[in-house]
Specification:
274 residues; alpha+beta; 4-stranded mixed beta sheet; 4-stranded antiparallel beta sheet; binds 4-diphosphocytidyl-2-C-methyl-D-erythritol; binds adenosine-5'-triphosphate; EC 2.7.1.148
Length: 274
């Protein structure tokens, strides 16, 4: 079975408190971003153990630690008759970008195994497995816009005026580790509750919708603010860091496509429509 795990963007992100277990509570909105990896899951050849072939963008760490294998191992612990599988992950989405790429791969591996082997797991059950793999991971099970609370894994539906909005995502080649980014944030209550702020036209979000990681990361990564300024200079109605960075995005409602800007050659840029 061939799937295309997509990335996500965060619209607003408030780190509201530090929890006793070291994680943080969030208020954020997740939206799917159609920048995708490719992930194939097939029964392994007879006599072969479970394995993964990795192509595309290099992934730090040993292949055995890949989140897709960890996802399949979780299912095998509860379904001992699941056969060995051969996974092929072609990595496209940048890593350490705040785009949730690794989490998406793991969630899509769970969904593919559920379907291929007829496990009959409900959406809630799949989200339960996903939560054990990463805070972001459960979002990718339903993969539709949500207002998220808790660790970023408790969801409420939200309607957003985004359909047809042109978008550019800019990854400046900096790998910002998620734990490192959280360690730099001072938790606080949101200045503007997110659901109400996002109910306004996109043009108003600049004054009302913020990502707490932007200020927290600014001293160590001064180049991020310059990218955001370039997106606004190019006419974006709204621009922000996604998640814990280092990718930033701009939104151009009512335009067929985002402008092609003159970014340094080492940057990765995705342009498309949400
Ligand atoms: C920054 C976001 O992308 C926003 O959507 C996510 O919160 C990150 O979620 P994720 O990559 O799935 O994170 P995990 O793999 O679960 O956790 C990585 C590390 O990030 C920190 N972490 C993560 C999520 C959270 N709510 N609080 C945290 O403090 C913890 O130090 C944790 O050890
Ligand atoms: N399939 C995968 N894709 C990406 N990273 C993976 C994968 N499996 C395991 N990893 C590990 O997870 C780390 C990336 O996690 P990190 O949280 O920084 O980035 P991300 O998952 O790409 O997106 P985000 O920054 O939004 O969480 C990598 O350094 C790598 O060691």
């Amino acid at each position: 079975m061939l799937t295309f795990p997509n990335a996500k963007l965060n619209l607003g992100l408030y780190v509201t408190a530090r929890r006793p277990d070291g994680f943080h509570t969030l208020e954020t909105v997740f939206v799917p971003l159609p920048w995708t990896d490719a992930l194939e899951l097939l029964p392994a050849a007879p006599g072969q153990p479970t394995g993964i072939v990795l192509t595309g963008r290099p992934i730090p760490g040993a292949p055995e630690t890949n989140l897709c294998l960890r996802a399949y191992a979780l299912l095998q612990a509860d379904f001992p008759r699941l056969p060995p599988v051969q996974l092929h992950l072609h990595k496209v989405v940048p890593i350490g970008a705040g785009l949730g790429g690794g989490s998406a791969d793991a969630a899509f591996a769970l969904k593919a195994a559920n379907e291929l082997f007829g496990l009959g797991l409900s959406t809630e059950a799949l989200e339960g497995y996903a939560r054990r793999l990463g805070a972001d991971c459960a979002f990718f099970i339903q993969n539709r816009p949500v207002l998220a609370g808790g660790k970023g894994d408790e969801f409420e539906a939200i309607d957003l005026p985004l359909a047809g909005t042109a978008c550019a995502v800019v990854y400046p080649g900096l790998h910002i580790g998620t734990a490192e980014a959280y360690a730099r944030v001072a938790p606080r209550a949101p200045a503007h509750p997110l659901r109400a702020a996002l109910a306004g036209p996109i043009e108003t979000w600049r004054g009302t919708v913020a990502n707490d990681f932007e200020t927290a990361l600014a001293p160590a990564y001064p180049g991020l603010a310059a990218i955001k300024a370039q997106l606004y200079a190019a006419g974006a109605a709204y621009a922000s860091l996604s998640g814990s960075g280092s990718a930033l995005y701009g939104l151009w409602p009512g335009r067929a496509e985002a402008p092609a800007l003159d970014w340094p050659a080492e940057y990765l840029v995705w342009r498309g429509v949400l």
